[in-house]
Amino acid sequence: MKIISVLDYGCGNIRSVIRMLEKAGASANRVSTPEEVREAQALVLPGVGAFDHGMGALMERGLDRALNDAVNNHAVPVLGICLGMQLMCRGSEEGRLPGLGWFDAQATRFPDPGLTRLPVPHMGWNTLRITKQNALLSADESDQRFYFVHSYRIQCNDPGDVVATCEYGDDFVAAFSKANLFGAQFHPEKSHRFGLAMMRRFVEWVHAAA
């Protein structure tokens, strides 16, 4: 069985992600060094907080280079969660640092609450609309609800990367995927049965990867 490594770079609740992976049937561990990332068979990049704080933490530890090596040279499966998904993009309006650039996408702030009457951050349960067949989210199951906490949303330049959207004032990208990469703006580790079902599919996806 492959081990799924959860990256600890000081910006996420690592324990809850590991517990959900184990509940989904995975063997999971915590990693925090470039050497451990380069040896990983599969990775979860979690994250909460500001974009530059997260990206800066990766860069200070040399984890950005190790992640790029794992993804670009070894096709290691990676799941990005919340801030982790945003770090997969080219950048964010929230900060000045470049992202990992795995997706041609940008994180932009939700409109001012004075314009939409919707509070920011977008916090709580919301329903996904699956837009494309993918490995982690079932297109056959309706009313899939996940837990969100975020003030910035993804805008993809390549619509083919988008696999799920969600409505908050208007539609935004809730999940994207390509090749060995998957990003979720929501928190599957906080999303009860739908989150568990997604994590089980992630475990299956990892074990099916070459």
Automatic annotation (TrEMBL):
UniProt KW keywords: Amino-acid biosynthesis, Cytoplasm, Glutamine amidotransferase, Histidine biosynthesis, Hydrolase, Lyase
EC number(s) given by UniProt: 4.3.2.10, 3.5.1.2
GO MF entry, a single one: glutaminase activity
Keyword Lyase attached: yes
Major place of residence: cytoplasm
Location relative to the cell: Cytoplasm
Domain Glutamine amidotransferase per the UniProt entry, residue ranges: 6-202
PROSITE patterns: GATASE_TYPE_1
Pfam families in UniProt: GATase
Role: IGPS catalyzes the conversion of PRFAR and glutamine to IGP, AICAR and glutamate. The HisH subunit catalyzes the hydrolysis of glutamine to glutamate and ammonia as part of the synthesis of IGP and AICAR. The resulting ammonia molecule is channeled to the active site of HisF.
Assembly, per entry: Heterodimer of HisH and HisF.
Protein name: Imidazole glycerol phosphate synthase subunit HisH
